[in-house]
């Protein structure tokens, strides 16, 4: 049996578990991990089939969430970006008592466009998948650069280039892995569970994000009273790279309130 691996950074009393998004490994967190690990104990996860767990076999979302909750510390704060947040919220259905709080970044309980829901047209995802199959490294690099507007005052071009370098030195995930996780994004719809959730939750959105549009916050907040949503100005789908200080500031304030209560 393959060993499931993760990295631990920091010595804080509060545990934070970080899950990356689709197609990308845990190096995506490089812009904020030093700040977070200076205050918390961070468990940085590569999902099965990515990064350090490139050879760990894919498992369906039910088995995946069972495995994650069994291996990571109980009562942690779970931080997820995009698909990573979807997996965490799915886990919250069954294991809510084991999750202290959730921080979502650019997350939707239903990523796909529906008649009654603002989401991603499925053909957009399929086209992106086809581009990744043709040239993984080029497509991921172009996507990341498209989501992080260059700002010389924030020095984010330097930060982004380093992140891309660290992301892409890892072995690329297989087409099988990418397709299986894409099916999770396409098929999982958590909207009916929102009204049942009681876990404190922070959801951060990018003002300019066209994949997960912040318009969904009204519906989410109405259904999920313990969720607080905040829109980060002038940011796209990866605000923790384009606007790391604003992103972390909101996280820290949320965590402070959660611990206080």
Automatic annotation (TrEMBL):
InterPro entries: AB_hydrolase_1 (IPR000073), AB_hydrolase_fold (IPR029058). It comes from the Bacteria. Pfam families: Abhydrolase_1. Residues 16-244 form the AB hydrolase-1 domain. This is Pimeloyl-[acyl-carrier protein] methyl ester esterase. It comes from Buchnera aphidicola (Nipponaphis monzeni).
